Structure formats: structure tokens, C-alpha cells
Amino acid sequence: MLVFGRPRYLASLGLCAALVASAVPRSAADGPPDNSSEKVRQVPPKGVAVPPADAAELKAGLADIKKELDALPEALKDKPALLDLIPDVEIYYTAVRYALDYDEFFNAKEIPAAKALLKQGIARAKDLKEGKSPWTTATGLVVRGYRSKIDGSAQPYGLVVPKNYDPKAATKHRLDFWWHGRGENLSEVNFIDGRQKSSGDFTPVGAFVLHPYGRYCNANKFAGEIDTLECLAHAKKHYPIDDSRIVARGFSMGGAACWQFAVHYPTLFCAAAPGAGFSETPEFLHVFQHEKVEPTWYEKKLWHMYNASDCAQNIFDLPTVAYSGEVDSQKQAADVMAREMKKVGLELTHLIGPKTGHSYHPETKKEVIAKVDAIVAKGRDPFPKEIKFVTYTLLYNKCAWVTVTGLGKHWEAAHVNGEVKNGVATLTTENVTRLQVDFKQDAGHVVSRLAIDGTEFTLPAADAGAYIGRFHKAAGKWESGSGVSDGVLVKKHGLQGPIDDAFMDKFLMVKPTGTPLNEKVGAWAATEFGHAVAHWRKQFRGDAPVKDDTAVTDDDIAHANLVLWGDPGSNKVLAKIADKLPVKWTKDGLTVGDKTYDGKTHAAVLIYPNPLNPKKYVVLNSGFTFREYDYLNNARQVPKLPDYAVVDVTSPPTPRVPGKIVRAGFFGEAWDLRPDDGQ
């Protein structure tokens, strides 16, 4: 994303100015040279050669740690607490395996670091076998690992554990997230090594600081976004974290992450402190990248998923202290947010480092710290008396005590404003068809009545101090109840699309074993399958789960989004459900609505509730939808396809598209196929 992204990360590790200044060649930085999709440089870049003796030593070390890992499940089968710690070992193995197998040693100095990591991993494994886990109670710099629900990978994160942490005490601690800047060389080896050497930019006294890896270099979007949520869940499981004092921080690419978390999860945190970065896609690419942005109509709609500026209203719910250097081009991010906030009557607290570029001004940094600490001292209000919330998708649907469960139309603004006064909760909505309220009641917070857009409800006495109520809109009027019958398909949280949403939860790539209906389409699907698996590893740092169609089990269907490759002739799982999908695919043609495309040259790409288990998705012929060109700038890493598309495979895949997109669109709120009107 940034000319200064990699140096910024190195600086956070405390490396010398000369090294920082030379960390990234100018030719590897973003800017106009990276605006050509015909000349796309490799991300991650190609590594340096590993001397044969070093390679042999690393392979031997990997074999040793693999042997220890393989023995742990049996050794710890009667010790579930220790069994749960295997990812704390596995992260060291995976880090070195990836670097060696995929040519991701970017500097010769990383080789001895990798050797040291293997020794650490083996030491942890031996401790576990002996019933010990000293790192779990250590203070200072600690690297932890968790098992991701998405692909089963062990993912690392760094912690700064405060000196006053006592595992035997009940004291709860503040936790600050720190999302790192862009680093195209930020392999797992470099991340883990760095997190064991530097505390980073901010280390509040008595606070845990959590450094997510974020699954590499994606501005904590998609699987990188889920990484933050999984890191938090893991930290809360193992450490006493105060839910009312969780802080969002980040700079550069990490500042972009901070903006998107602030507006999409406004009541998860008590404060946000974004620095630099970007807050939306089109304006940033124009200003920073000097790129002429020409989106399709559906790409433009999909910008709403990660454009923090579109949800600037939500900063009402989260005290935010933004920082920018006065002469930093990425001051643009906070300027855009301030402009959009002003439109809805909000004023951004924006501290500016005088005559400063892409870094923190020392004195202004002190001001940021003081303001954030003052907010944290008050803590997050668990029951705010007033909320203002906007969303464009049910993926982001919660603000304090209101959860939006249905939209009139996806990718258009949906508003909920709420106020609690004198025991009455009043809501006004726009483009919302279903919602839920959660009132945690006590002697000081009793809600006896609810009014939604003027319709009043008397609430029953809360059971055990809590009340959960579901409401829906029917014929323009609000009524109690969910309003959704069993077995009826509707878009809902976690089942709302677009295609990329399937890769933010557990998924399984299902490889065809049969004969394709048409050779050309079959060859295209095989190529795209290989691309999806390889690039999941490169960009989201996990081994994509893969099974043959003949090996898919009932458990897979029950618990995973199935990504089906091929066509109804080649993929046996797809053949089972083909007649229950909103498109019809035969040897002769692919029919979408009232139009049929030549089956010899066209393929279907889509996401839809799995007819075999409508609680999960089925995806046809797609991995995540941004491609090589988009790796060059994080603001480009947004969804590139909606809910469905038809691909003309006579046009070869490019760094931007999987082939010529001849039709694409969104399914309706009932997962129905709508007219392809380009709106």
C-alpha cells in the first residue's frame, strides 16, 4: 500500500534509521508504476537463495519439530488444557516451512532467525509433553498461536504482557490492539521474530497489547478481519481481559484497519486511535496511487463493504482520536472521515503532527496517548442511552443493544437510531425489515416499553435481568417475532454474500473427479482451482482445505461452506444440487433468468445457501475475488464480484479477472434471481 509501509514496520521493531531508510527499494513501492495490470510484480516477492547447508539444517529442524507435533495429540489426549496449546508450537513449524518451501526468505539474515524459531518450537513441544507451558504465564513479549476456524491453520499473534500480570489474580486488564503497517516481506518468520524483539509504538502501563499478524498483508480485511476477532477470543480465553477497556489502534495500513474496525464494530471497543492509512477505496487510489478508477456498477456497490467513510455515522458510538502527519499524503484518510462525519453532525478529533510525514510527531503522540487514556479511564458503556448506526450489509449488523437482522435492500444504507429515556426505548429505522433488541436490565436500567418507527410494544418483565426481543416489518408496520418461517431462504447475518463472505468462515474446496460437460470449461475450472489454492496460501497464509467430491462427508456439509469446482458433469456434489440452484447448467447451455449462454464456453460463478444445508454456503468456481493486480495496494483489496457471475472462458484469466465477465449481479433479499438491470 505504501512507499513507507515496510520501513514503518521495521521502525516499530526498533531497527536503525539507515536500515529503515533502505528497507524497500523505490521500485517496489506503490505509485503509478503499479497501475498497469500488464506488468504486475509478485507479492510476496521472490526470496533469496538459501545456501544448501542452511537448507539441510532447516529441513532437519522441521523434521524434528514435526515429529514432536505428531506425538503431542496422543501424549496430551487426557490433558485438554495442554492439548489446546498445540498451535503455540505449530506456528513455529509453519513459519519456517512456508519460508523454505515457498521461497520466502527475503534476506539472508532471516535464515538464522528461522533456525532460532525452530529451536523455540521444539522447546515448547517438549515442555507440553512434560505437562508445562511457561510461556502462558510469562510477562513481556510473548508470541501465541490459535487454531483458525476458517482453514484449520495455526495463526500467530504477538502479545505485550504487562509486568503486573499475575495469572493467579482476578484483576482484569485493558487490552490495546495494534494493527501493523504494510510489509510485503512480512513472512511468519519475520513477524514472529519481530514480535519477540520489540514492544511496538504504544505500551500503556498495565495493559496487554495484542499485535495480530492479520494473515499477512491485507489491511485486516476478509480472513485478516476474522484473525482479529479470533485473536481476541483466544486472548480472552487465556488472560483476564476487561471487555470495557479494549482499544483499537493502528498506523499506516494498520490505520486503515483501525478505521474499518471502528465503524463496523463500534461497540466492541471503548476507543479508537487510527493513524494515517486509508478510509475508503476510490478517493485514496486517486490521491495516493494516481489511478484512474473505473469500477463496474457492482464493484462500486461492493465498495460499501469496506469504505469506512460510508459508515462515518458510527463514530458517534465510539470515541475516536485520529492522528496524521501534517505533510503525510495519508492525512487524506482522516480528512475524508472528518468530511463525512460533518455531513451527519459529528466532529472528528484529529491531532496533526506539525511538519511531519508518515510517522508520529513525538509531542503530538503524547497528546494522542493522553486523550485515549482519558477515554479508557471511563471505560465502554455497556448500555449506551443513545446509538446511531448505519450499515450496508448484514455482515456488520450490531451496535450495542440493537442487532439488524433484515434489510429492505442490501448495499443501500440502512439506519437505526435509538434512545432510551425514562424506561422507554425509541428506535427509528430506514431500510431495515427485521431487528433484535438485547436489554441487560438491572435496577438502574429497566426498559418497559419499546417504540419502533412509532409502533409501540409493552415489554414483558425481564428474566434474570435480560430481555431479548425480535421484531419484523410487515405491510409497512412493525410486529413482534422474527417474521421468518423455518425453511424460507432469506439473507441474514453470515448468509448474505457476496462470494468473498464464504472465505470468512470454515470452508472446503471440493475438487471434481468426473468428466466435465465441456472440455474448455473443465480446463478453465481446473486452472482457477489451482489459482485459488495457491493464492489462498500466498495472501491469507493457510493451506486451503481440499477434498475430492467423492470424499465429502455429512460432517463437511454440516460445518463448512463448500466451494465446488467444475460443473454438474464433473463434480458429484454439484450434480446433487444442480436442480436446486437459481441457474441451470447443462452441456448445451448455462441459463440465468431469461438468457442462456453457450455451455461450451461459459461457466457459472456464484454463492448461494447450500441446498444440502441452507445454514452454510455453496460457492461455484471461485476463491476470494480480488487478484494479483489488487495485491499491489491494500485499498484495491475489496470484493470484485457480487453474488453471481457468468464467465466467458474464451477470454483467458488476467491479474484482474478470471475471464470475461459477461453478466454479474446480486440475488435479492430472499436469494431470488432479479432482473440483470445493472443497478
TrEMBL record:
Q: Which residues form a coiled coil?
A: none
Q: Where is the region Disordered? A: 27-48
Q: Which GO terms describe its molecular function?
A: serine-type peptidase activity
What biological processes does GO assign it? proteolysis
Q: Does the keyword rRNA processing apply?
A: no
Q: Which domain of life is it from?
A: Bacteria
Domain Peptidase S9 prolyl oligopeptidase catalytic: start-end pairs: 227-372
Family annotation (InterPro entries)? AB_hydrolase_fold (IPR029058), Peptidase_S9_cat (IPR001375), Plant_Biomass_Hydrol_Est (IPR050955)
The signal peptide stretch is 1-28
Q: What are the UniProt keywords, alphabetically?
A: Signal
User: What SUPFAM superfamilies does the entry give?
Assistant: alpha/beta-Hydrolases (SSF53474)
What is the protein name given in its UniProt record?
A: Peptidase S9 prolyl oligopeptidase catalytic domain-containing protein
Give the species: Fimbriiglobus ruber
